[in-house]
Design goal:
This protein has 231 residues and is α/β, with parallel strands linked by helices. Helices cover 37% and strands 20% of the residues. The protein binds calcium ion (CA).
């Protein structure tokens, strides 16, 4: 397990590094925010401990930048005992846990192990239904590995269907989730868009994953499993 310690107090960093190495971890230390960010962006870590009060770029900024760059390595934020920063803020910024300074090494180790067990918690996980995959962060869609170009509305529609795979969704439900709040136009717009989507995600693959359930609504099926409710 590889740990990055971002900490400007050299003595503390060295103490934690030695302790973790004695527990079998591989440890890198960055002594300021910029260096920490740079390392975390270019190398793979299993966990990052991040001090908040750092010269240059503070811990909040580092955390925010990492999440914005789709780095979901668990982050344990180290907060000062009676610092001006709020711990809730640390979690808002995308940290996974926080530990108040001064801390005992045993507690730090326990927190690190707990976070490692939990693993990465992506805020925007890639959705997959059979051979179809949608990445909300990069806004890309592929089917059987081939990229599919969608308009923003088609993308939102597909995202909603994938979140609710196999469920039958009514036109009203779909409008409420995909169209702007307060849309009171014709519900048949859904049918039109289902047609557009089918032409992109089904027709070229000779698939029938996007089904119309007469009188009820629509559902998206997994093309890689036989569905017993299929007619
Ligand atoms: Ca500090």
């Amino acid at each position: 397990m590889r740990v990055l310690i971002v900490e400007d107090e050299l003595r503390l960093a060295t103490y934690v590094k030695r302790g973790l190495e004695a527990e079998g971890f591989t440890v890198d230390v960055a002594l300021d925010g910029e260096e920490g960010l740079e390392r975390a962006l270019t190398e793979e870590y299993d966990i990052i401990t991040l001090d908040i009060m750092l010269p240059g770029m503070n811990g909040y900024k580092v955390c925010e930048q990492l999440r914005a760059n789709d780095i979901w390595t668990p982050i344990l934020m180290l907060t000062a005992k009676d610092g001006e920063y709020d711990e809730a803020e640390a979690l808002d910024m995308g940290a996974d846990d926080f530990l108040r300074k001064p801390f005992s090494f045993v507690v730090l180790l326990a927190r690190i192990r707990a976070l490692l067990r939990r693993g990465k918690t992506e805020r925007n996980p890639v959705l997959t239904v059979g051979s179809l995959s949608l990445d909300p962060s990069s806004r890309t869609v592929t089917k059987q590995g081939s990229p599919i170009e969608l308009t923003p509305r088609e993308f939102s529609l597909l995202e909603y269907l994938m979140h609710n795979k196999s469920d039958v969704l009514s036109k009203r439900q779909i409008i409420d989730h995909v169209w702007d709040w307060g849309y009171d136009g014709d519900e048949n717009i859904v049918e039109v868009y289902m047609g557009y989507l089918r032409k992109k995600i089904d027709t070229p693959f000779e698939a029938k994953t996007l089904q119309t359930v007469r009188g009820i609504g629509y559902r998206l099926l997994d093309d890689t499993v036989r569905n017993s409710t299929d007619a």
